[in-house]
Write a structure and sequence with these properties.
With 79 residues, the chain is of the alpha+beta class. Helix content is 19%, strand content 43%.
Protein backbone atom coordinates (compact mmCIF):
# COMPACT_ATOMS: atom_id res chain seq x y z
CA UNK A 1 0.00 0.00 0.00
CA UNK A 2 1.21 3.46 -0.87
CA UNK A 3 1.90 5.81 2.03
CA UNK A 4 1.39 9.58 1.87
CA UNK A 5 2.85 11.75 4.62
CA UNK A 6 1.73 15.32 5.27
CA UNK A 7 4.36 17.36 7.13
CA UNK A 8 3.75 20.75 8.73
CA UNK A 9 6.51 23.23 7.83
CA UNK A 10 7.19 26.96 8.02
CA UNK A 11 6.49 28.46 4.62
CA UNK A 12 6.15 31.91 3.07
CA UNK A 13 5.72 33.78 6.36
CA UNK A 14 3.37 31.22 7.90
CA UNK A 15 2.87 27.47 7.90
CA UNK A 16 1.92 24.94 5.26
CA UNK A 17 1.65 21.23 4.89
CA UNK A 18 3.99 19.53 2.50
CA UNK A 19 3.65 16.23 0.64
CA UNK A 20 6.91 15.26 -1.02
CA UNK A 21 8.15 18.47 -2.65
CA UNK A 22 4.71 20.08 -2.94
CA UNK A 23 3.47 22.78 -0.53
CA UNK A 24 -0.11 23.60 0.32
CA UNK A 25 -1.33 27.14 0.55
CA UNK A 26 0.14 29.14 3.44
CA UNK A 27 -1.80 29.26 6.72
CA UNK A 28 -1.37 31.88 9.45
CA UNK A 29 -0.64 29.36 12.22
CA UNK A 30 0.76 25.90 12.80
CA UNK A 31 -2.62 24.75 14.14
CA UNK A 32 -4.46 25.96 11.03
CA UNK A 33 -2.01 24.11 8.78
CA UNK A 34 -2.33 21.00 10.95
CA UNK A 35 -6.14 21.08 10.70
CA UNK A 36 -5.93 21.46 6.93
CA UNK A 37 -3.42 18.60 6.64
CA UNK A 38 -5.65 16.33 8.72
CA UNK A 39 -8.63 17.17 6.50
CA UNK A 40 -6.60 16.51 3.33
CA UNK A 41 -5.31 13.19 4.73
CA UNK A 42 -8.86 12.15 5.58
CA UNK A 43 -9.93 12.89 1.99
CA UNK A 44 -7.12 10.63 0.71
CA UNK A 45 -8.72 7.69 2.54
CA UNK A 46 -12.17 8.11 0.96
CA UNK A 47 -12.82 5.46 -1.71
CA UNK A 48 -13.93 6.58 -5.13
CA UNK A 49 -14.91 4.92 -8.38
CA UNK A 50 -12.67 2.76 -10.54
CA UNK A 51 -11.58 4.77 -13.58
CA UNK A 52 -9.07 4.73 -16.38
CA UNK A 53 -6.25 7.22 -16.08
CA UNK A 54 -3.64 8.45 -18.51
CA UNK A 55 -0.43 10.16 -17.45
CA UNK A 56 2.94 11.19 -18.84
CA UNK A 57 6.12 10.14 -17.04
CA UNK A 58 9.31 12.18 -16.62
CA UNK A 59 10.72 10.77 -19.87
CA UNK A 60 7.68 11.90 -21.85
CA UNK A 61 6.11 8.47 -22.35
CA UNK A 62 2.34 8.16 -21.94
CA UNK A 63 0.79 5.40 -19.81
CA UNK A 64 -2.79 4.12 -19.52
CA UNK A 65 -3.81 2.41 -16.30
CA UNK A 66 -6.88 1.54 -14.31
CA UNK A 67 -7.11 3.24 -10.92
CA UNK A 68 -9.19 1.13 -8.57
CA UNK A 69 -11.49 3.28 -6.47
CA UNK A 70 -10.80 1.28 -3.34
CA UNK A 71 -6.99 1.41 -3.69
CA UNK A 72 -6.41 4.30 -1.32
CA UNK A 73 -3.05 5.27 0.23
CA UNK A 74 -2.26 5.16 3.91
CA UNK A 75 -2.25 8.90 4.71
CA UNK A 76 -0.65 10.22 7.88
CA UNK A 77 0.15 13.64 9.30
CA UNK A 78 3.39 14.56 11.08
CA UNK A 79 3.65 17.93 12.80
Amino acid sequence: MTEVTYRIVEHDGGFAYKVGDVFSETFPSHDAALRAARAAAAEQRVPGSTEGIRYQDAQGAWHDETARGNDRPNAKVED
